[in-house]
């Protein structure tokens, strides 16, 4: 009986630790349907630059540093531009595109990573019902916010990378 109780307790502790783990490090954020990543358009550093889909390459402009804000919420800092992204329209609404802006404490730059399966996430703008969505599978297509769907264009995986260029 003691062994069973100990086994159940250990399993509970391991599960709690696994659920409480946060994402740390640098990753490409890759759409599970297209296998393309988020990046600033043409790797441009200007404010207001569009965030688009692009073929996976181990480049700094496609790599995002995860800054843990709390629970499953993060700010994302691009390694090449040192900026983040947020909705272009305020308030954000269905169909709003994402644009690059300097990192700040704004709630518009906080993203909730919601586990969907073993290796994928829905990414929701904190405090809203809007999720990061690939507008199409084409290279350089805009990334938009939409209400949750059962479409793979809203599922994202994290590809660990530490690019030198």
Query: How would you state the average pLDDT, rounded?
Result: 89
- Give the overall shape, derived from the CA principal axes: globular
The portion of residues assigned to helices is: 10-25%
The gyration radius over C-alpha positions equals: 17 Å
Total separate domains: 1
CATH architecture: Trefoil
CATH domain class name: Mainly Beta
Major beta-sheet overview: 6 strands, antiparallel
The number of helices is 1
User: What's the N-to-C terminus distance?
Assistant: 57 Å
Low-confidence stretches: 3-20
Q: Which structural class matches the secondary elements?
A: mainly beta
Order of helices and strands: HEEEEEEEEEEEE
